[in-house]
Write a structure and sequence with these properties.
Elements: H1 2-7, H2 11-67, E1 80-82, E2 85-92, E3 96-103, E4 106-117, E5 120-129
Length: 130
Amino acid sequence: MFKLIKNKSGQALVTLLFISVIGVTVITAAAILIFQNIQSSSIVEQGTQAYYIAESGIEEGVLRMLRNPGYSGTSPGQPLDVDGGSVVISTASGGIISATGTYHDTSRTIQVKTVYNNGELTISSWKEIK
């Protein structure tokens, strides 16, 4: 029996290596999952920020249209800087105001339909365009 124990002297090293490989694999997989979650949360946050920038652009467009019914939006290539991002405002016939907010690489667009009647501007719809 003493001979059997003597012949298994490298078994502890093999077991330790096996457990170490499993541990490294589990830790690596957890780190990858955490990194992906952080990255997707960042994208969602950028989208939310871009939406709020577009919303502020719509409010600016409505205000400018109230002051000047012939307002045609921002100049091409001249976006307005808003809270670390930018917004491009455009108007179309029929009282449609569109604003595209951009924050880092994410853009969101909101469209508002307005009716201008006897000096009164009324918003008839407010929606995000995908």
